[in-house]
Amino acid sequence: QVQLQESGPGLVKPSETLSLTCAVSGYSISSGYYWGWIRQPPGKGLEWIGSIYHSGSTYYNPSLKSRVTISVDTSKNQFSLKLSSVTAADTAVYYCARTTEQHPTIDYWGQGTLVTVSS
Amino acid sequence: DIQMTQSPSSLSASVGDRVTITCQASQDISNYLNWYQQKPGKAPKLLIYDASNLETGVPSRFSGSGSGTDFTFTISSLQPEDIATYYCQQYDNLQGLTFGGGTKVEIK
Fold first, then answer.
1. Is residue B91 pLDDT above 90, yes or no?
2. DSSP state of A90
3. How buried is residue A94: exposed, middle or buried, by Cβ count under 10 Å (0-12/13-18/19+)?
4. What would the DSSP string read from start to end of B40-97?
5. Whole-number CA gyration radius for chain A
6. Ordered DSSP codes for A33-78
7. In the predicted model, what is the mean pLDDT of residues B7-35?
8. What pLDDT was estimated at residue B1?
9. From CA B13, how far away is CA B76, in angstroms rounded?
């Protein structure tokens, strides 16, 4: 069974860089699918941040593209998110997820991790 | 940009009622429309993919229909465990994945 688990600091200071990692078990990232990040501010809806293919090709939300970097480490079977110059508006639950290659559909999600931006 | 308009934003219904949620795209997205259920404090869960296909293990009281710009998600007989927020989601090459605003379903 595919499982995803987010890890990283729960508190980040304004203007700094948010860094999260998603460890994948039960499936090899190298075998396919897109691997990505979605966030949800408290009490609000879902926002796709971006995705990466095992080859390293990346796809980002145009509204976040200038601040986002997603990378993959196939040797550790994990992928990571970096979001720079954070503000309070970036406070959210961050989910990592697996997305199908055709007609992109998110079929597996991590449990989510709350990241708060505050000094 | 393709805009997704999901309605209603919330609804209250009785156990056993038929519940319908709609999602309208600002332009034709064929059948590239998925539906997710999110219970409080939990990650979303895929229920319907490609507008009308039931994900494995999802109860048959959930269904989806539509193509082009207009889509419908239906719970044929609302159960207490269906209390959740439901989201539609589409994909396009320019914006990537986008979600509707969500519909919070409550028991009357």
1. no
2. G
3. buried
4. TTS--EEEEETTTEEPTT--TTEEEEEETTEEEEEESS--GGG-EEEEEEEEETTTEE
5. 13
6. -EEEEEEE-TTS--EEEEEEETTS-EEE-TTTGGGEEEEEETTTTE
7. 96
8. 80
9. 12
User: Using CB atoms and an 8 Å cut-off, which of residues 8-67 of chain A contact chain B?
Assistant: 36, 38, 45-48, 50-51, 59-62
Question: Can you tell me the distance from the alpha carbon of B36 to that of B98, in angstroms, rounded to the nearest whole number?
Answer: 12
Average pLDDT over residues A96-108: 92
What is the per-residue pLDDT for A40? Answer: 98
φ and ψ at B80, to 5 degrees?
-55, -35
Structure tokens at A70: 């997603």
State whether the Cα torsion A54-A19-A97-B3 is positive or negative.
negative
- Evaluate whether A95 touches A8 at the Cβ level (below 8 Å): no
Shortest distance between the Cα of A13 and any Cα of chain B, in A, equals 24
CB contacts < 8 Å between A and B, how many?
60
Which residues have a Cβ under 8 Å from the Cβ of B17 and sit 6 or more positions away? B77, B78
- Give which of A6, A46, A113 to mutate to test B binding, by max B Cβ within 10 Å: A46
Indicate the residue type of A40.
Q
pLDDT for position B96: 87
Take residue B68 and report the two structure tokens written for it: 């082009």
Is A46 within 8 Å of B32 when comparing Cβ atoms?
no
Tracing tokens 């048959």 back to the chain, one arrives at B60
Q: Which of A36, A42, A84, A40 is nearest to A64 (CA)?
A: A84
Its sign, for the CA torsion A6, A9, A10, A14, is negative
